[in-house]
Prior knowledge:
It is a single chain. This protein starts with 11 loop residues before the first helix and ends in a 5-residue tail after the last helix. The chain is built from 3 helices and no strands. By secondary structure, it is mainly alpha-helical. The mean pLDDT is 87.
Amino acid sequence: xxxxxxxxxxxxxxxxxxxxxxxxxxxxxxxxxxxxxxxxxxxxxxxxxxxxxxxxxxxxxxxxxxxxxxxxxxxxxxx
Length: 79
């Protein structure tokens, strides 16, 4: 089903598919950028929770940039 048919990412199956597609890469990005000191698993989950809380405002085409932006604004500067 093409992404542009959805106005937002609130549909559970759409959100789950997005999570499965992007969670590993997001975790790896955090681990590469900050190492274990940031606890990448927790930060990744926080970003997806924020996405779910604001899902009515986020289209599927903008969801990836939304979660990465959440991470960059809530994470400390890398060493």
